[in-house]
Amino acid sequence: MGDLRTEAKNRRLTNRTVLNGQPTKKTYLHLGDRPILSHTLQVFDQVPSVNRILVVVGKDDIERCQSETIEPYNFETPIQLVAGGATRQESVFCGLQIVPEDTDWIAVHDAVRPFATTSQIERCLAVAYKFQAATLAVPVKDTIKVANQDLLAVETPDRQNLWAVQTPQVFRKDLLLDAHLLAQRRGILATDDAALVEQFGAPVKLVEGDYRNLKITTPEDMEIAHTFLMGSTQQAQVKTRLVSRTGIGYDLHRLVPNRKLILGGVEIPFELGLLGHSDADVLTHAICDAMLGAAALGDIGQHFPDTDPRYAGIDSLILLDHVNRLVHSNGDNHDLHVQNIDATVICQRPKLAAYIPLMRQRLAQTLKVDSTRINIKATTAEGLGFIGQSQAIAVQAVCNLSLENDSY
To answer: What pTM value is reported for the model?
Structure first.
């Protein structure tokens, strides 16, 4: 019997695999009608929070990567190719060297892990913003054995505490760079960047991922990947027969002095304004929540936490645009579009009727739909409660998303 470790290693699609009689690297193997790497790039291209993609490849592969995995697919996010090093760790460090100085966050992802979804990536980003470092991971399902050199089991860890780490892994840029520099000084080698950050002494928060977020390593993985792809295609065909999805949103903000009153992107003259981390546009926030609810993408607090300084005082129409693009590109719900929105503003003062047409126009422009798809109503609380005493404004919103822009 041969060495089981050697046999397992030989089953990997490690460096080159023979395809149609010619050796090819696994990133260029076709999954469906396109290379694996282009599938992976497509996912990140659809994440609104990602404004630049660096692809680290061998220096001899730059031209091939450009011509086979990037140019044919018209990605919108700027993509830059970088010559890597001899190991994964060296390659990540090569990429870090050319990251623009104004970059705050880095997401590191395996090129041959094409089934991550935009919602998983966004969740990992949101957690990293709070904890400085985060990675997707899934609980280990099998019992794990620790073996010695003779392949004799010497330990069985409690699998309740074991997680299989995936990517993306998201880090504050300065933290990741410092961890890599420390590893170089100490001669530390690791199989992922989270381990380097842990060696640096910083905690890494685990974000539960999905077992479908497969890293294609063996021939069996390719078979599974083709099955996943076929299943996704069939699922998409079923979804095209669905008429719509509906979500509801609700938000309330306190009225206070020395703040602007912004509703639906329109500044309304009044002695009080809404209190909040952003511009506190309660109407736009409720619409965001209704859209996220219809697409099963959580809520506004998950995507724009009030602990994140990036969103301090931000125009809520920017958040709405982000949500709209996220809904369009969600990996589980391709091509969802706003069919109609109906919102009710509950406000004792000021009177809003004169401003509603402009609100509808601003919201429609942001969502890239006709204003006839957006309805806004205003009512009072009949003098009752906080709202009735002009201490707060609340909004209820309903959003209908369709899988076809012109399905009606």
So the answer is: 0.59
The strand pair at 53-57 and 79-83 is best described as parallel
Q: How many Å apart are CA 7 and CA 76, to the nearest integer?
A: 42
Q: Report the C-alpha gap between 257 and 272 in whole angstroms.
A: 5
CA 80 from centroid of its chain's CA atoms: 20
DSSP 69: I
- The residue among 131, 139, 102, 134 whose CA lies nearest residue 121 is 134
Angle between helix 118-131 and 316-329 (nearest 10)? 140
pLDDT tens for 315-355 read 999 999 999 988 887 644 456 889 999 999 999 999 999 99
Q: Are 346 and 380 in contact (CB under 8 A)?
A: yes
Low-confidence ranges of the chain (pLDDT < 50): 1-11, 14-23, 331-333, 405-408
315: amino acid identity, one letter: D
Contact 206, 137 (CB under 8 A): yes
CB 323 within 8 Å of CB 291: yes
136 forms beta bridges with 207
Q: Report CA torsion sign: 183, 186, 187, 190.
A: negative
